[in-house]
Automatic annotation (TrEMBL):
InterPro entries: S04_transporter_CS (IPR018045), SLC26A/SulP_dom (IPR011547), SLC26A/SulP_fam (IPR001902), STAS_dom (IPR002645), STAS_dom_sf (IPR036513)
Entry keyword annotation includes Transmembrane helix: yes
Organism lineage: Eukaryota, Metazoa, Chordata, Craniata, Vertebrata
Compartments it resides in: Membrane
Protein name: Solute carrier family 26 member 6
Biased composition annotated in UniProt, kind: Basic and acidic residues: 556-573
Keywords: Membrane, Transmembrane, Transmembrane helix
Superkingdom per UniProt: Eukaryota
Stretches assigned to the STAS domain: 475-708
């Protein structure tokens, strides 16, 4: 679409920071002591606190029964139908008896119903959490610790009891951590888990889940492993023991998998015509249980089944405090991962449906009642369910997470830095396991952010014709540099990690070797100081013999002084000076008396020393031009600090050094476009002093450029100019 040309004119005074604050009436924010309100007690505050932590009291009285009840009943039924097979299956991931999967589908959902704020999330078993719990239970209670001496078989009852105790204690610690995270408002942790990181992590977790189910698919007895490279060792052991596979188990898993895939395809094809999707998992579980019971898969073909599922709820047992020390690290990792996943999902639905999710709570629904009925009355009917069918349910449901491998192609085209995060997260999680893999992924992601701030885009800006807009001259062909003014900008904030790189890039982009020029200037100034010292020494020697002729040593010193002066200034009279030394003063009558290396009186030498002292003090003597050094092709430098979001002590020192170095080569430095919080931090860091004031800081780049053009190499305390933009 072609833009119509519309001119606008703004007439305002040229503003530096002091004038901007005066014009805009800048007021300092009043300091608030929020902690004082924490100890105030009132009915209103108590009621608000109760509703904040028990949201069900707020929404249940206003629940629209006529509008929502039927939909919630159908949703609860569908969730229960899905939770039943997944609960049984994911218990295997956690290394626990299947009935505990049903418990996990009831208690969290009911509690979430009371304390949650999202009406779309249903809490229950989750593959990533289950496999993380399983890695803990299998590492701390491996099968090898429960071998029976008489027949070298595993005492499954004792092993399951130990693993249940571990899982229960771990759950308590995870809950305590998550309550603590909620109290300290730890919802910000989600910001450190970027989408590529989460998707790479869940993809690697799906591989972990897939490998963990291979022993149930092939009917193998594998060693329990955990820690780095455990996944690789498990895959190698599976390959080694494949000849020992139970044929009946493999066939059962394959048939169940094919049925599940066909039902999912049928649901996708008929989703427009079906009020609810066909419950493929539940139908498969019911059919497999009936076939297993009727055919006798366990006794005739050696297919491992779920076994005893006790009816009713198990009474609660207190966790074992002696296990806290060994589980605290695992608990914190699981708490953070579960917390982040729940908040991420909750915010997705909240944004989609237009309500707010508190980052320090989560939600639940009606399905817990259906799960409770199954636990109390119907759970024991699934005792003959083959574990291979549950493994098939888990593997087929991994399809969504395994599809995330397509992220590699899309991220390669869109953002290769995000692709690097995805790949590092995936590889680290595969090799180091879920807990260490997540830690490595987060650290790498944060380091990558720091690294990217160390390599921002530096640019020299030019003015777009007939505007007050300044853009990179390398990107905009019509942007032109302002004669005599260099404008430098960085795309990232300057802090301790990139302050030195900022200074180096500035000096490089300006086209002047600032450090070399300063070094040459200091050497020449030092030579002048040494000459002055020799003149003073000569004055003292001359004063001692004021009424006598100067000795040959004085003559020699004067000659040395003159030769040094001629060497620095490259004068043309070097040859004639040599002839005067050989032939005397009369041999060079054309030269002035002051140029002669002949005998001088004490008064004349005093005059030379005095003039030398005055010359040393005069500013013109140490200018680049007076010293014969090249001068920069610009007289002013403008630093566009619009990208500066904060400053630290290293940033302050670097800015002061920039002012010092460029002033040393006779270039005045100005700053522009600082945000108010940054200006406040500059003041707090005592950046402004007698040499750098707020009059060096301008409201915009254009203000700084106009001032620099009107006042080249002048003091900033000049009258304000009117300009038309």
């Amino acid at each position: 679409m072609e833009l119509r040309k519309r001119n606008y004119y703004v007439e305002r005074p040229l503003l530096n920071q002091e004038q901007l604050e005066e014009l805009g009436c800048l007021t300092s924010a009043t300091e608030t002591h929020q902690w004082r309100t924490w100890f105030q007690c009132s009915y209103t505050r108590a009621r608000a606190l109760l509703l904040q932590h028990l949201p069900v009291l707020a929404w249940l009285p206003r629940y629209p029964v006529r509008d929502w009840l039927l939909g919630d009943l159908l949703a609860g039924l569908s969730v229960a139908i899905m939770q039943l097979p997944q609960g049984l299956a994911y218990a295997l991931l956690a290394g626990l008896p299947p009935v505990f999967g049903l418990y996990s589908s009831f208690y969290p959902v009911f509690i979430y119903f009371l304390f949650g704020t999202s009406r779309h999330i249903s809490v229950g078993t989750f593959a990533v959490m289950s496999v993380m719990v399983g890695s803990v239970t299998e590492s701390l209670a491996p099968d090898e610790d429960f071998l029976q001496a008489e027949n070298a078989t595993v005492d499954e009852e004792a092993r399951d009891a130990a693993r249940v105790q571990l899982a229960a204690t771990l759950s308590v610690l995870v809950g305590l951590f998550q309550v603590g995270l909620g109290l300290v408002h730890f919802g910000f942790v989600v910001t450190y888990l970027s989408e590529p990181l989460v998707r790479g992590y869940t993809t690697a977790a799906s591989i972990q889940v897939f490998v963990s189910q291979l022993k149930y698919v092939f009917g193998l007895q594998l060693s329990s492993r955990s820690g780095p490279l455990s996944l690789i060792y498990t895959v190698l052991e599976v390959c080694w023991k494949l000849p020992q596979s139970v044929v009946g188990t493999v066939v059962t898993a394959l048939v169940a998998g094919v049925v599940l895939v066909l039902v999912k395809l049928l649901n996708d094809k008929l989703q427009r015509h079906l009020p609810l999707p066909l419950p493929g998992e539940l139908l498969t579980l019911i059919g497999a249980t009936g076939i297993s019971y009727g055919v006798g898969l366990k006794h005739r073909f050696g297919v491992d089944v779920v076994g005893n599922i006790p009816a009713g709820l198990v009474p609660p047992v207190a966790p074992n405090p002696q296990l806290f020390a060994s589980l605290v690290g695992y608990a914190f990792t699981i708490a953070v991962v579960g917390f982040a996943i729940a908040i991420s999902l909750g915010k997705i639905f909240a944004l989609r449906h237009g309500y707010r999710v508190d980052s320090n709570q989560v939600a639940g629904a009606v399905s817990s009642l259906f799960i409770l009925v199954i636990i109390v009355k119907l759970g024991e009917l699934f005792q003959d369910l083959p574990k291979a069918v549950l493994a098939a349910v888990i593997i087929v449901n991994l399809k969504g997470m395994l599809k995330q491998f397509t992220d590699i192609c899309s991220l390669w085209k869109a953002n290769r830095v995000d692709l690097l995060i995805w790949l590092v997260t995936f590889v680290a999680t595969i090799l180091l396991n879920l807990d260490l893999g997540l830690a490595v992924a987060v650290v790498f992601s944060l380091l990558l952010v720091v690294f990217r701030t160390q390599l921002p885009h530096y640019s020299i800006l030019g003015q777009v014709p007939d505007t007050d807009i300044y853009r990179d001259v390398a990107e905009y062909s019509e942007a032109r540099e302002v004669p005599g003014v260099k404008i430098f900008r960085s795309s990232a904030t300057m802090y301790f990690a990139n302050a030195e790189l900022y200074s180096d890039a500035l000096k490089q982009r300006c086209g002047v070797d600032v450090d070399h020029l300063i070094s040459r200037k200091k050497k020449l100034v030092k030579k002048q100081e040494q000459k002055l010292k020799r003149l003073k020494k000569l004055q003292k020697q001359t004063a001692a013999s004021k009424d006598t002729s100067v000795s040959i040593e004085v003559h020699s010193s004067t000659r040395d002084m003159e030769s040094n002066n001629m060497e620095d200034s490259k004068a043309e009279g070097e040859g004639s000076a040599m002839s005067c030394r050989d032939g005397g003063a009369h041999a060079c009558p054309e030269r002035k008396a002051t140029d002669l290396p002949a005998v001088s009186t004490g008064n004349e030498l005093e005059g030379m020393v005095a003039s030398g002292q005055e010359g040393a003090k005069a500013p013109d003597v140490t200018t680049l031009k007076a010293l014969g050094l090249p001068q920069p092709h610009f007289h002013s430098l403008v630093l566009d600090l619009g990208a500066l979001s904060f400053v630290d002590t290293v940033c302050l020192k670097s800015l002061k050094n920039i002012f010092r170095d460029f002033r040393e080569i006779e270039v005045e430095v100005y700053m522009a476009a600082c945000h108010t919080p940054v200006v406040a931090q500059l003041e707090a860091g005592h950046f402004f002093d007698a040499s750098i004031t707020k009059q060096h800081l301008f409201a915009s780049v254009h203000d700084a450029v106009l001032f620099a053009l009107q006042h080249p190499r002048s003091s900033p305390a000049s009258p304000v100019l009117m300009t038309k933009l």
